[in-house]
Records
---
Amino acid sequence: MKKIKSMSYEELEEYIVSHGEKRFRAKQVFEWLHKGVRSFDEMRNLPAALREKLKTDADPEVIETETVQISKKDGTRKYLFRLSDGQMVESVLMKYEYGNTICISTQAGCRMGCAFCASCKGGLIRNLTAGEILDQVLAVSADIGRRVDNVVVMGVGEPFDNYEELKSFIRLIHDSRGFNMSWRSITVSTCGLVPYIKRFAEDFPQVTLAVSLHAPNEKIRNELMPVNRKYDYSKLLSACREYVRITNKRITFEYILIEGKNDSVKQAAELAERLKGILCHINLIPFNGVEGKSFAAAKRRAAEEFRDVLKKNGFEATIRRELGSDIDGACGQLRSRKNQSQN
Ligand code: SAH
């Protein structure tokens, strides 16, 4: 079956024409797919014969909603989606003053092995296709009855470990004939796969890049993030400096504050020293408890002191507001709980 939602407009045209159909049919199919219809039968302006042909030859890459949890505190909606082969992925919709933001997944599982993260339990199962990544946005838009305003690629998986599908997804969601999302409304977060940082800067200079740093130095980053043994801290920071040079854009650094591990004022000063001269925003993230991990969140006071040291050093730094804390907020929690209950 041809994965039809993952196709670019041009690929879809080629596909439709190769079936002896008129070119404008591709436009119709593309528009229906990107409006989020769930079957070829709903594509009402297509001739019945074409709909039948598509049913036997093309996969619309539709994901099924397994559960939706809605936070009573802040309205955050957490979705568990089932892919066509039974794999589960998660998306979260958060409401902010400036619109709503969806956090989406790019892989079922993850092979990066970060010590604090629930997504890597069980390793990487498989990459998502561009169509499956896109369908999370379409399914949530349909559920809430309005457009999703922003996308952050910060759900389960390492987006740069699935770079080609990520690239197709970003081009698809930006396509003005489809969802038409602006570059600026998209953020991609990486744990630091260095070679892709430059590629991303060149491919998508207007999309925001977030880099998960989580440590003030080599030693602590090695302990928390195995990826650091392959692409070390200084290589990562050089790539970040290059990113800013190429794109002229601010980079976002994410830094989880873990009590007694990376949250002292001394470590804040060390971090400030290392990041000197990089145009950036530092997003301090309260650690979200994960079953089976012994880490604890930094105290509010420690987080504020950490932020203040960064600010005093001229950095823009904020503590991320916690949303959805009553509904399995952190990455991969819902999916891993579901897997456990199935075992
Ligand atoms: N693989 C990518 C994107 C997915 S994770 C990356 O590493 O950036 C998105 C963010 O959530 C990352 O900064 C990640 O480190 C963070 N995260 C993972 N587990 C967390 C937890 N238990 N509490 C708080 N943040 C967490």
---
Amino acid sequence: MRTKVAIIGAGPAGLLLGQLLHAYGVDNVILERQTPEYVLGRIRAGLLEEGTVALLEKVAAAGRLHQEGLIHHGIELAFDGARHRIDMHATTGKTVTIYGQTEVTLDLMNARKAAGLTSIYSAAEVKPHDFDTDHPRVTYVKDGVAHEIQCDFIAGCDGFHGVSRASVPASALKTYERVYPFGWLGILSETPPVSPELIYSNHERGFALCTMRSTKRSRYYVQCPLDDHVDQWSDQRFWDELRRRVDQKAADEMVIGPSIEKSIAPLRSFVAEPMRFGRMFLAGDASHIVPPTGAKGLNLAASDVHYLSQAFREFYDDKSSAGIDGYSARALARVWKAVRFSWWMTSMLHRFPDEGDFAARIQIAELNYLVSSQAASTSLSENYVGLPF
Ligand code: FAS
Ligand code: PHB
């Protein structure tokens, strides 16, 4: 088989890249090691920036999003027993949309199927080759039969544990990492959200987040020790702990119910530089990971593939390599701003086991400054709604 761009990974990055390239007339094939059902079964992000929504509109995959997504103008910060609203729209003119990553993935999968584009699921032993030459190729095994795809470019959209970044010689990579000393225990429940907007809570017992997937389905998180296991957390223990970490009004009004999903995710900040290796390009979690506190992971995958799809379009339409030569620097400039913001939100809102009372008081001072300063809350808002692409 031959194609212009071989995409490894059918998560949000790979699927959105595939649709953008299709819109630009650039032939592409996606290779995914899991089944569609497995990919759709992963419960992950829930919040989209306007730039991400615009890209989904561009590839005609935003219809359901506009019907079912919830537009939010602000968030609430809870600390010292009180809640404080940050009106992000008032200072930025922008909003965020609550719409689960699962739904984004399904919409992109359906758009790809409707366009009759090639996606190969359950592809085993996917491996990029010769990306340091002008004739890169990708091999894989499907139903026990070995296959090869010859291509002009390879897009590594295969997430943090993928094969693309792992195929780059260690000497060609510089990585930056911070692993946080806690994780997020998250649950999904068919219960109405406790508040119309998200509540980020800094509490002496640990961080908590009240978010949602719709007006009938809630998503909640509590900070938990890294060595906790989900089996140690009954639903009742989760609800009791969550209600201890939010303000009294939220605790009193919270509707609890059985969890329909419960999992623990570790938190890390990670960036691999550069994002280009000859004719292979990394995008999304394959290149960078942020703690979900800033709701940036999925949105960074979107800006990466926005830049990458434009670069490929320039290569084929304008016969120019400027875009592909500039991709890594352009993407990393936005990535690092989001990495900083996600680290800052995480540092301000979580209790760090080995930091004492002074650090806790500094967090409260930072939060008090945020909710009492237009300049400070505008800075949070412009990062949260998404910096320009
Ligand atoms: P993905 O990891 O989504 O997709 C990569 C795809 O590549 C997967 O389908 C995988 O099966 C496939 N793949 C891997 N190796 C392969 C191989 N060798 N061959 C072929 N295919 C291969 N972000 C937020 O903004 N908010 C959140 O609340 C949030 N919660 C998260 C919770 C968890 C547990 C995790 C892991 C991430 C969370 N994220 C969150 C971040 C998440 O949303 C990512 O940023 C987003 O999935 C990035 O999309 P991709 O880059 O496409 O990577
Ligand atoms: C979510 O809805 O899952 C979500 C929202 C905002 C975050 C993290 C997770 O910062």
